[in-house]
Amino acid sequence: MSTAKLSLNGQDYEFPTFTGSEGEVGIDIAKLRPESKAITFDPGYGNTGSCKSAITFINGEKGILRHRGYAIEDLANKSTFSEVSYLVIHGELPTPEQLSAFEAGIAEHSTLPAAISDMITRFPKTAHPMSVLSSMTAALPAVYDDYINEDSVDTNVMRMLGHVLAIATEFHKHTEGEAAVPFDSNLDYPGNFLNGMFGSADGGYTVNPIRQSALNKLLIVHADHEQNCSTSTVRMIGSGHASLFTSITGGISALWGPLHGGANQAVIEMLHDIQEDGGDSEKYMEMAKDKESGFRLMGFGHRVYKNFDPRATILKEACDEVLEDLGVSDPTLALAKNLERIALEDEYFVKRNLYPNVDFYSGIIYRAMGIPVDMFTVLFAIGRMPGWIAHWLEMREDGGRIHRPRQIYTGATHREFPR
Ligand code: SDX
Fold first, then answer.
1. What pLDDT is attached to residue 1?
2. What DSSP character marks residue 300?
3. Residues 217, 318 contacting (CB under 8 angstroms)
4. Which one of 255, 274, 367, 401 is most buried, counting C-beta atoms within 10 A?
5. Nearest Cα to 131, choosing from 258, 256, 262, 228?
6. Catalytic residue among 163, 302, 309, 391
7. What is the dihedral of CA 27, 31, 33, 38, to 10 degrees?
């Protein structure tokens, strides 16, 4: 067995290492503190593995993303979101029978409990949909007595996949003062989202196949992404043996941050602001390099990808296709491409490996499809749902310990209480 050696205060320590299926090397430091009393220190966990996982592999240097061994390019261009969701959750591509049963299960669990639908209508129409989604997900244990039962896990997985779409579309209909649109088993998952958003409870809406195909691709490229902020949060909460619904609520909340899933909304708002200010790309790229400016180029950069984000490449291509097919001319696309062009030639961005990430182009497609900007991160959550579920299940199956990082204390040492 290979080992890693550490020398600390004149004492040598040796720790076992192990290698993953893609050649990644992990140093097992489980005995570091018991033997040396020291801990590692890695703010942001850039060099720290929290688990072993067989769901997704990313090679950030080469721009590789695979789910259960399948390349994201193949999945995005040849598969469906339901099939990818099954793959991510169960580990293998489904047979036609398995896929049919999976889709029937989602349909069966796409009707919200009356209490949830009622609560959705109590929110102000100006509420941010991410707040509604996290609130209603948090409320699911209140309406399902079996939320924590071991033998209800499979049912709760299907409930989560069905309910996330229903909560999102029912709230959107509430904001429009319209009745919710029930799930239609004749439509696929993306088709039901579009029907739920733009259709009518009385029927008669025809899902545009271009939008349906674009949304299928968008959901697939969001399906999972290793131990990102929100997925790690799901694992953190689940490590305390909290229910699937409770763990997913944490993931939704973590995703909302503009440095994470909230970036897709922030990108569109940034592009709009640049446009409103005259569209001077060079000016804003200079501001992005000036830390004092307080301006950050949203949709750029990534902790793991030190080359292009393959999802951004897929979505950039889809942008051109979808906008042309929909006959939508969006000046922000040209602005986005110009910002990317400047960044790829600018030493500041090149030196820091700052490339467009998944959020840079996704909002342009969502907007072309008529989706409100404050729903963009909800769509990220819908896409990421299979990944969150898969990691929660994997963590339970692995039987890991509760997550409890250490710290280095830097506060006041002991002092007598003054009274
Ligand atoms: C997602 O982890 C995942 O997998 C996430 C995700 C997923 O699928 O789950 O891929 C989804 O969250 C994508 C990222 C969406 N966020 C944004 O687009 C927000 C803008 N990007 C950044 O805030 C930033 O790049 C992060 C948050 C994405 C990554 O942050 P890191 O890894 O902590 O990088 P950093 O902030 O330490 O930056 C390193 C350097 C710094 O400069 P120096 O101190 O070295 O001089 O790069 C600079 C930063 O100032 N930098 C940027 C920048 N991003 C980093 N400068 C200008 N504009 C940016 N966008």
1. 79
2. B
3. yes
4. 255
5. 256
6. 302
7. -40
